[in-house]
Amino acid sequence: MIEGAPWRRWVFFYVPVTAFVVSLLFPFYWMVITTIRPDSELYRPWSAPNYAPFWTTHPTLEHVHDLLSETLFSTWMWNTMLISLAATAISLFCGLLAGYALSRLKFPFAGSIGTAIFITYLVPQTLLFIPLADIIRNFRLGDSPWALILTYPTFLIPFCTWLLMGYFKSIPKELEECARIDGAPRWKAMVYIIFPVAIPGILSAGIFAFTLSWNEFIYALVFLSSPEQKTVPVGVTSELVRGDVFFWGELMAGALLGSIPVAFVYSFFVEYYVSGITGSVKG
Amino acid sequence: MARVAMRSLNKKYDEVHAVIDVNLNIHDQEFVVLVGPSGCGKTTTLRMVAGLESITSGQVSIDEKVVNELPPMDRDIAMVFQNYALYPHMSVYDNMAFGLKMRKFDKPEIDKRVKVAADILGIQELLKRKPRQLSGGQRQRVALGRAIVRHPQVFLFDEPLSNLDAKLRVQMRVELKKLHERLGTTAIYVTHDQVEAMTLGDRVVVMRDGRVQQVGDPMELYNQPANRFVAGFIGSPAMNFAQVRIAAENGSLWAESEGLRIKVPAPITPRLGRYAGMEATLGVRPEDLRIAGAGDAKDLGFDVAIEVIERLGSEILLDVAVGSATMVASVEPTVTARVHERLRLAINPDRVHFFDNKTEAAI
């Protein structure tokens, strides 16, 4: 806490925090206000006498209704949910086993394999999508959810592996040794002792993986083409911007509804999430 | 009934030879303590017995059965760790029951055993709690409980008391001793605390730099240390050492150094004879020094100057200067002495030790 005169607290704490919070929340506010603003207000020129961009006097759900009835938004939501959950599950499963092995088992080149996995995470997606597109085409997976379910793990597994590896390292190895002396073979010690203790880390990895897949844009844009296969980020931007016409109300409604699951997941697990990123385990 | 035997046990890491040719026979129901400074290989030795560390060469057998290749779970041992290693997500009851569940005991049997162990350790009220709700001493008890419910052949203790505060440590030490007397299970105990080693061990194994220095019951180590290291390690305050020259005069031997000239007691003379004219190390414990009285032989005393006085209540420690060296003498609490005072100390002739300067072995 900042100590000393009250003005110090204002200058070094309240003012910066307020500025930070306002600049973070303003885009969300803008999203909400645009969603509920009627078209007549949305497309009013800025020079009009009653121009008021920061509030509305006639809130309406018309855009939300249009989005749900006139577009395939609910299909996109469903696609995104399915793809994100599947990709997260695959990545968590692989990440758990790989993270455990790299942090706990002694085998040659464990360190360099760990580094190699990390390096794959550093290759930008904007480069990787070109060869991946070739692979997707060869396996005839294009324009299906599998194109994404199988490609998202290429960046999610390294991420999960590294996060979990770090978390497993913070768990005292005596816990596992004790379990093994107690009569548990290694895999049982892993499942009954290490994984339950690592739940904050596992949840963090899961939440992060879920968010990354939910928001992913490039692969979804490249690998999916028909409207009924699209995910929310791609669907909203490609179907609600036609030529140079921006359906701002529907766009923002889509962004708003599309961010609800992620916000929900974060708020639900926030405590686990924080302790997973920062915390360690005491025996 | 379990004996544990180690034959030429070795552990090599890439650079370090952590355990070198350890040979040890531990009898059934014996409480053996491995003691030594940190890095002496005592914990590594214990972990090899537990199966947590692979064995580079040599053999470990439990009850005549070689266990080198057996996984920890099949060795029928229980281990208590320094940080207790309680499973944080399980209640005390589940912590204690885990080993039995893994071994597929039926529920009533598990329940019975956990209750009995909890009774022995006085933790009946804690069974529903989680480890994080327990104090250090309680965690220690739970860790012990988890070890005893399984009725293993051998208990392994890896510095189990070192995370406790001093008072609790003494209390738990007594309880451990009682527990061992009650259960009679063979136990191997690792510690760096020589007091713990002396009070708990039926036999004590002193280790240094991966090698066993001496094995013996506590009083044997105290009275007849095999070398200078053991002599200095066992006993508190530590034994005094002084560099002396052995001189032969009129058929008897004298140990001389600056400010010190004492006659070598007759029983030691034959062994020390070949050191005549050479240097050796004289060792004498603080409690074997006393303030010389009229009855003390002249040739067993020497003059000192008091540098520091430490009053401990039950005794007084005098840090004294002998020539350019310093020694500690433990004297009666009734002694009145002042700093810088000069006085004469006498050595108990039956309890003088000499060590070879090169090999450090006792002469």
Please describe the structure with a list of short key phrases separated by commas or semicolons.
heterodimer; A: 283 residues; mainly alpha; MetI-like fold; 2 domains; two-stranded antiparallel ribbon; 14 helices; 2 strands; 75% helix; disordered C terminus; B: 363 residues; alpha+beta; Rossmann fold; OB fold (Dihydrolipoamide Acetyltransferase, E2P); 6-stranded mixed β-sheet; 5-stranded antiparallel β-sheet; 9 helices
Can you describe what's shown?
The complex is a heterodimer of chains A (283) and B (363). In chain A, strand 1 and strand 2 (245-246) form a beta hairpin. Chain A is globular. Chain A has 14 helices and two strands, in the order αααααααααααααββα. The two termini of chain A are 31 Å apart. Chain A is 75% helix and 1% strand. Chain A has two domains: 6-60, no CATH class; 72-278, MetI-like fold (Orthogonal Bundle). Mean pLDDT of chain A is 88; it is low at 279-283. Chain A has helices at 6-36, 39-42, 62-70, 73-104, 110-122, 125-138, 145-151, 153-169, 173-182, 186-197, 199-215, 218-223, 232-239, 248-278; strands spanning 241-242, 245-246. In chain B, strand 1 and strand 2 (17-26) form a beta hairpin. Chain B has two domains: 4-233, Rossmann fold (3-Layer(aba) Sandwich); 240-355, Nucleic acid-binding proteins (OB fold (Dihydrolipoamide Acetyltransferase, E2P), Beta Barrel), CATH 2.40.50.140. Chain B is an alpha+beta fold and 363 residues long. Chain B has helices at 42-50, 92-102, 107-121, 136-148, 166-183, 194-200, 218-223, 228-233, 269-272; strands spanning 4-12, 17-26, 31-35, 57-62, 65-66, 77-80, 154-158, 186-191, 203-208, 211-216, 240-249, 252-257, 260-263, 279-284, 289-291, 301-311, 316-322, 325-331, 342-347, 353-355. The A-B interface holds A 172, 174-175, 177-185, 188, 192-193, 196-197, 199, 281-283 and B 50-52, 71-73, 75, 77-79, 81-89, 98-99, 102-103, 131-132, 146, 150.
